[in-house]
Specification:
The chain is an alpha/beta fold. Helices cover 35% and strands 23% of the residues. It folds into three domains: 93 residues, NAD(P)-binding Rossmann-like Domain (Rossmann fold); 213 residues, UDP-N-acetylmuramoyl-L-alanine:D-glutamate ligase (3-Layer(aba) Sandwich); 135 residues, Protein-Tyrosine Phosphatase, Chain A. A hairpin with a 2-residue loop joins strand 15 and strand 16. The longest helix is centred in the middle third of the chain and has 16 residues.
């Protein structure tokens, strides 16, 4: 844990006790603050009371005697619909911050030179974060990874000059962290997301921009118009910058050449890595994730051979295009995190053909109609869950499919048909393009069940990892 001593002797209200909230309250208390806790859910309040925190509703009891309101990133901060507690704090003149901000202030107090890599973007930020941490660990560095991925930032060990914090940041977290000043700031890409909270795409992009414009070095994917505009603006301000493009050859930056990642600069073209055969980094989207990670760790002094070795040993993230291993000839891939068609598209685009596709659950608007350009890669589809009638209609006569009902039935049929096929490496892919809650509590449980079934099947063998 990182005790938050910068609020020692002060009074703080922590609003929102799910995920990182209770950890935040504990870190503030460990640092000497007087902490009041509240959550709209009674069960969360009861957990905080059991942990010894005073329970106080800031909306009813006010915040005028408080020094700060620490807000969960899940609580709406700005128009069109800020939470009433936000208005209450503004009326009282109390600053509103988040746990990332508390970490940033503690970093200034404890180790202002401690390296910090912060990653944001619409897609790819979790894989990029995990890969950066993996590459630094491969180089023997002391690494603490968290934020919007896995571990709450204040649950991590405190900043030290020899410890690298690698932090995934959502837009909501950036909005609550005005003093975020990372050593390296990464912006992967921008597409419309969370506009119900942010109102407009311009506002959403402006929040993301803060992370990179306040960094010592910005790493920006420039394959969309918003990110290109941000990169151009920073370059005009002479801000240190590394551009990434998977679609175009850059004269100054990292580009993709097939499976190779190449840096073009004043010294000419330098091959940084070849991703061929790295199952955990299949696809153009993962090439960008790898490019961003390489740019970051190179800037932190990791040598090329260590980077290439680390890329080969990267296991990938659970439930995100995660290669589990083989059952006989069939490669088993867990992409349970693909809860909509856009996410499933990235998985389908990563394989040339021979895909035995397990799909279904609670369908999002539009279903899978937009995936037609990839239907010729699908050998057979296996439909599960509530979406079956809709998906059967959208697949029509373009893709052979089976109504399997359950994940268990779909997996058994997919493995049998894949291994009976003539494809040299058939793929059994769980990429549901759906939410899970008709049959599973969440995508993690769905993916874990898929993994358990694969590992229990006769003939299963795990992926071989390079040393």
């Amino acid at each position: 844990m990182t005790p938050v001593t910068c609020f020692s002797g002060k009074t703080v209200s922590v609003f929102g006790l799910g995920g990182s909230g209770l950890v935040t309250a504990e870190a503030l208390r460990a640092g000497g603050a007087r902490v009041f806790a509240w959550d709209d859910k009674q069960a969360a309040r009861e957990r905080a009371a059991e942990a010894g925190f005073a329970i106080s509703n800031p909306i009813e009891e006010g915040l005028r005697q408080h020094d700060a309101l620490v807000l969960s990133p899940g609580v709406p901060l700005t128009p069109p619909a800020p939470h009433p507690v936000v208005l209450k704090a503004q009326e009282a003149g109390v600053e509103i911050i988040g746990d990332i901000e508390l970490f940033c202030r503690q970093r200034v107090l404890m180790a202002p030179d401690a390296p910090c890599v912060a990653i944001t973007g619409t897609n790819g930020k979790s894989t990029t974060t995990a890969l950066i941490a993996h590459l630094l660990q491969a180089a023997g560095r002391d690494v603490a990874m968290g934020g919007n991925i896995g571990t709450a930032i204040l649950a991590l060990p405190p900043p030290e000059s020899a410890r690298v914090h690698v932090i995934e940041c959502s837009t909501f977290q950036i909005d609550l962290a005005p003093s975020l000043r990372p050593t390296i700031g990464i912006l992967t890409n921008l597409t419309p997301d969370h506009l119900d909270r942010h109102g407009t795409m311009a506002h959403y992009a402006a929040i993301k921009q803060r992370l990179v414009e306040n960094s010592d070095l910005a790493v920006i994917g420039v394959d969309d118009a918003y990110c290109m505009g941000i990169a151009d603006q920073l370059e005009g301000q002479d801000h240190p910058l590394v551009r990434l493009s998977m679609q175009h050859v850059l004269q100054d930056g990292i580009s993709r050449d097939g499976t190779r990642l190449v840096f073009n600069g004043q010294e000419g073209a330098i091959e940084l890595a070849d991703l061929v055969g790295i199952a955990s980094l299949r696809g153009v989207h993962n090439a960008q994730n790898a490019a961003a990670a390489i740019a970051a760790v190179r800037a932190l002094g990791v040598d090329g051979e260590t980077i290439r070795r680390g890329l080969r040993s990267f296991p990938g993230l659970a439930h995100r295009m995660q290669p589990l291993g083989y059952v006989d000839r069939a490669l088993i891939v867990n992409d349970s995190k693909a809860t909509n068609a856009e996410a499933a598209e990235k998985a389908l685009a990563s394989f040339a053909g021979g895909i035995h596709w397990i799909i279904g659950g609670v369908a999002k608007e539009g279903g899978i109609g937009g995936l037609q350009p990839f239907f010729n890669r699908i050998a057979h589809a296996y439909l599960i869950g509530k979406s079956t009638p809709v998906f059967a209609g959208q697949l029509g006569h373009q893709v052979p499919f089976s109504d399997c009902g359950t994940l268990e039935q779909a997996f058994a049929q997919a493995v049998a048909r894949a291994n009976a096929s003539q494809d040299p490496e058939p793929i059994v892919l769980l990429s549901p393009a759906c939410a899970s809650y008709d049959q599973f509590p969440n995508f993690e449980v769905r993916g874990a069940r898929f993994k358990d079934m694969a590992e229990a099947m006769m003939g299963f063998r795990q992926m071989e990892k390079d040393a």
